[in-house]
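Two folds, back to back.
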Amino acid sequence: MSRYAKQPDHGSKGPAARREDCPEQADSRPPVQRLEYLFEVTDSAGATRMICDPAGPRTRTPFGDHSVLEFPGYREPAWLAGPAAAGQVSRHQVAAPWLSQPVPLILWSPAAADRAAPSPGPLLIGMTCGLAEENRAGNRLMAADLTALGHQVRLAEVPDAHTWTGWRDALDPHLTYLLSRAW
């Protein structure tokens, strides 16, 4: 999924033109409601770089802008338009030796969260995985292994890929379910 060329028209809001000269063109729609993608281009010296589709809409991600296709039926989660829940926000920097700078982290905690030490015993684990994620089999194996270790695992496969927006869109109902069981 990480290297898509211009997609065929599937009724999307993104680019609709087909490129007959593009060897990596997808012939069918992947099992997603939206797709973030970049083009890999090679210059005359043989150097490659990733660029956004100049003809399509873009979305911001923590890794820079990406082109995006939104297929019919895709809707942002309703909770994005709702009021923010009461809570406490703290800002941190996480060292990332493989990057040139620390990664900023914003941690939110609900106002009514019980700060007591967790009780011992099996963990309650919620996992989501995109239907078009390249490591879907690995996620299934992880869920099975955690279950075999006695943990309570719920794996939900969602119609997206391995993207920030895919994770965001899966928070409700999957994180909501997990939190309702944990609190």
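---
second:
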Amino acid sequence: MSGFIQRHRSSVMGILNGFDRVRIRGTLRWLCYVDGFGKYLSAMKVRLKDFKPYAEGITDRVRRATERMAEEAGRPLQYLGSPSTSQEEVARAIAELEGAPPVQTRGHESARPSPSPPNLIRDRVSL
């Protein structure tokens, strides 16, 4: 990525870092299933009754790290509460408020929530 930025540095007005969405794929796919997730929690020594505070703690750590990165970079942190909010439009509005020159960008569509997988028992899906 840094090679790309170096090559196009005259056109780059800033760099955004952070999580947009987290998808579980590849070698962590086993976490998507009850048995795999149960094994993960067991390995982490988290009881089911303690899962809520465990998950809230991880969420808090990610949030604080994100806030710290934004503060260190001197950048605003704005929560977008809906996947239909255009990230590009928000970024352009912030750039305009700060007096940054307009930039040409490629089209970008933020991730949309995926439909839930069918419930194999309830929906009687045949494989």
